[in-house]
Specification:
Shape: elongated
Strand content: 15-25%
Mean pLDDT: 85
Distance between the termini: 70 Å
Structural class: alpha+beta
Strand order of the largest sheet: 1-5-4-2-3
Helix content: 40-55%
CATH topology: Glutaredoxin
Radius of gyration: 18 Å
Number of helices: 4
Length: 143
């Protein structure tokens, strides 16, 4: 009886820690630790030279994807130089594998050179997206 109780408490502790970790990471825009060299994303609709592209990977039955679409589209509407491109993950499995997309929605913030500078999974706020693209717009204006 005591061994079963200890097992249950251990499982609950591990599940709680995993849930807290998941919640902390979900819906956060994170800078890419080691930006890869510029990637050719033209096949996904990314136009070279656009100061900031919000490349969103979605799936058909994903409710958070719809909310993220609305947020990204509104930010792209508000700021000149920001473009929102939504990609169906199921239709572009090669790109999903190449870019290490593990879940939807995933948003990649791509600069004008084609470098992925930020990555986010889960539902985002407009403030988070704006904060991620603002430095790219300022850098583009300074040129």
């Amino acid at each position: 009886m005591a061994a079963g109780l200890i097992t249950v408490l251990g499982v609950l502790a591990v599940a709680t820690v995993a849930g807290l970790w998941w919640r902390r990471r979900d819906g956060r825009v994170r800078p890419v630790a080691r930006p890869h060299p510029p990637v050719d994303l033209a096949d996904l609709g990314v136009v070279a030279g656009t100061p900031a592209t919000l490349l969103q990977f979605s799936s058909a039955f994903c409710a958070p994807c719809r909310a993220t679409r609305l947020v990204c589209a509104s930010v792209a509407e508000r700021f000149a130089g920001v473009r929102h491109v939504e990609v169906d993950a199921e239709a572009h499995l090669d790109a999903v594998r190449r870019l290490h997309i593990w879940r939807t929605p995933t948003v990649l913030v791509v600069d004008g050179a084609g470098t992925i500078v930020h990555r986010a999974t889960g539902t985002l706020s407009a403030a988070q997206v704006t904060a991620a693209v603002a430095p790219l717009l300022a850098a583009g204006a300074a040129r």
